[in-house]
Structure to design on (293 residues):
């Protein structure tokens, strides 16, 4: 009996030591990731840094749990504001996948001329080919696809999918091709069990009508977004006020594009432009979801 008690005691001691070592290793990894992210952020252009007060990339990526070495998919990366941060931060042991909207969704926009649509077909290849300067030799491996052209071999391989101000048009045109629900289904397939979806999206006031907050003005309601993600099979993890801006109080005639950086409605009105610059970028929800294990 005495030997059994001694053995049990030793097992407890060893278990405690193992946990301490694990915690120390985890803490060091967190410090290393933090230092790497700060270094990447410090290396960005002055134009990119000017948006930090509104976009809070360090806090946002930490909230989403993004760390070096991950495989991350970024939806509608556009000009690459976040991509040029993610590529060097994920490092050459990581992968960054750009995902564009399916081609049919662009047919809903006035700017989608035949020339635009033809050029959009080559977006995946061009996105990869033209981004060699995002971190150089230490950058993540780049891949790019459209939502309707992702190979099945990628299913179950992605750690996190990021929708950075990319949900509103999917929601806006849900009735015309189920673009929102199909995108969430694709993301569910792509993610590993326990993988996450991180969302930063222009947030409509709770008092706004559902018709106004349908995505056509760029704004969506947080509770609606949550309900759609849960409906698609994801677990809600947490929300944050990282990217909130209480100065943004849109009226029924307003859209997100009245504010910087677009300033679409005040280019010829210096006083109105100054008013919008004082508000800053839009009020944004920051939400985290997880694919069940």
């Amino acid at each position: 009996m005495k030997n059994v008690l001694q053995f049990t005691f030793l097992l407890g001691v060893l278990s405690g030591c193992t946990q301490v070592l694990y915690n120390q290793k985890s803490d060091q990894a967190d410090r290393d990731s933090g230092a790497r992210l700060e270094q990447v952020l410090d290396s960005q252009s002055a134009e990119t840094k000017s948006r930090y007060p509104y976009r809070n990339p360090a806090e946002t990526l930490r909230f989403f749990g993004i760390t070096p070495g991950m495989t991350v998919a970024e939806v509608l990366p556009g000009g690459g504001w976040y991509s040029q941060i993610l590529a060097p931060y994920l490092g050459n042991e990581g992968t960054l996948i750009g995902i564009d909207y399916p081609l049919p969704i662009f047919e809903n926009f006035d700017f989608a001329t035949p020339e635009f649509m033809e050029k959009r077909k080559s977006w995946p290849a061009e996105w990869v080919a033209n981004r060699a300067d995002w971190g150089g030799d230490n950058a993540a491996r780049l891949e790019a696809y459209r939502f309707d052209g992702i190979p099945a071999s990628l299913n179950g391989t992605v750690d996190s999918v990021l929708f950075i101000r990319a949900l509103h048009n999917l929601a806006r045109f849900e009735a015309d091709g189920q673009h929102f629900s199909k995108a969430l289904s694709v993301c569910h397939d792509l993610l590993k069990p326990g993988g996450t979806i991180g969302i930063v999206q222009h947030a409509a006031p709770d008092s706004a009508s559902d018709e106004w907050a349908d995505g056509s003005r760029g704004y969506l309601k947080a509770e609606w977004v949550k309900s759609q993600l849960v409906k698609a099979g994801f677990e809600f993890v947490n929300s944050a006020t990282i990217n909130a801006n209480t100065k943004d109080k849109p009226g029924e005639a307003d859209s997100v594009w009245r504010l910087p950086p677009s300033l679409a409605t005040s280019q010829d009105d210096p006083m109105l432009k100054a008013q919008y610059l004082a508000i800053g970028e839009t009020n944004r929800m920051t939400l985290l979801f997880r694919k069940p294990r």
